[in-house]
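Researcher: Quick one. two chains, 594 residues in total.
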Amino acid sequence: MKIVVCIKQVPDSTAKMVVEGGKVSWGDAPMIMNPWDEYAVEAALQQKEALGGTLTVVSIGDESTKEALKRALAMGADDAILISDPALGYLDTQGIALILVTTIKKIGAVDMAFFGRQAIDADAGLVPVQAARLLGWPALTLASVIKIEGGNVRVERGIEEGRQIVTSKLPVVFSLTKDFGEPRYPSFMGIRKAARAEIPTWSLSGLGIPAPVPVIAWPEIMNPPVKEVTCEFITGSSPEEIAETLSSKILAEKVL
Amino acid sequence: MNTFVFIDHFKGTALPASWEAVGVGKTLGNVTALIFGSGVEALGKTAFEFGADEVLLADDPALADYRAEAFAATLSKLAGERTPDLLLFPTTTRGRELAGMVAIDLKTGVMVDVTALEAVGDKITVTRPIYAGKLLTKETCSTKPQIITLRGRAFPKPPQQAGKSGTLTKIPAVAGDFPTKVEGYTTSESGVSLADANVIVSGGRGVSNNPALTPPAGLDEKAADIWRAQQGFALVKDLAASLGAAVGASRAAVDGGYISYAHQVGQTGKVVSPDVYFALGISGAIQHLAGMRTSKMIVAINRDPEAPIFKLARYGVVGDLFQIAPALTAAFKKKMGK
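Model:
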């Protein structure tokens, strides 16, 4: 099996984000592998272990993005590719999907591609399905259980109403959620291997495409309005008295 | 402006955000509701009552279960032929992925999970949260049709006017050999979906440490911890039941194994915006606050008076949730006649 995982490097989820002078800042918070993508790496590793084959991890970004790729290598991916090019600036999801799909096609004979459900920075959650559409492969999104046998795929996927159980055939695109199960920690050997790894950089000319022109623009990024709330602390001589006061105050606001 | 609105439903029951999208479409002009499924003609009638001018109904056994590829094929063909200015979807699981696929088919883009929009002529500028709501961005799309998914509860649900009707046109589903088949469903344990809930009662790590409880003999430390937390979550669920509310949880509670991931609110869970959010034993880590900060009213119960959750809360109680939550449940039951 030839397996690809597409990941993104993002500011840590604990980062306090602010807009200063029109620019997004996350202070000294570290850049990490997008947390959802860790589940994608885990799911891909499990398939590799079950079916054999190679696992390649791919990301678009600058040189610093190699850190996220190295984490995936340390978790057990076989090799990594960084897509980087001075011509790449802001990309919309359509552009990201196009670059990743072109990469997957260039890798060639890929059986499955794994994505996290969305990146915690732009929060779009579109790239997995858009990549699937460009590839012409089924998109099995929000997967929590994946079983593959003889090219047949069976997935349980999270929907509003519970889980939908679907079958399909390889090649497919998966997107993963936390429901899949905890991602593994990199092993000591894995970390050593990743530290030594030379990660190749592919440019747009290597992929044979021009820089995608975004159709979605972000003309302005803003801090959210600050909610002025003063907490009214409810006290009383017993839990019952506190409950009585609190319930009366909430009901008086007619929000229930 | 001519707007297509995709009505997302499960077995004929529409997700409420679909009607909110019809309402938004009506503020911009003419609304055509798209209803795909099998035996779902009754939804067309409802769509007219919520304000749709026209309904396009693809009623076909092949569309009985939602399959992204089958739905996207029919949707893209329709939009390609009828060239609406705007396609609106609710930001649901199905709505989001269909929007993404149709954008590829129609060579345009998606503005996703939008919470506000304004139109100048037929050009729309939207506002949407990024970084789980830690920031907001404005977005525009330079190509047509513009495709937007609307966050549930961000826009008002239009009034339902009984008896209102319009033109319903039946259209064929695009036939195709789609490799994906639906085998069945397992339903969610909780009755109320977090995204649609008016009221949410959430529990955090704090629900696991009731000092008054002694776990049954023979449990190891981890099992005893989960047992304690389950007793605690029973109180959270009781309060939720007394209010007809959905049950939420912090990441700490989910990671602790106290409750399933489907309940997680926050940056790596669900982003919610109910009228009232009860936070029980939740300190308010930034990732959790990101997922519920737009709730209209937050009520927090926590032992720690310094817990960050109180900075967002309208009402706070510093105290023992194991005593206060049951008392609050009893008070609401009495006052609300339930």
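The mean pLDDT of chain B is 94.
Researcher: Thanks, that's what I needed.
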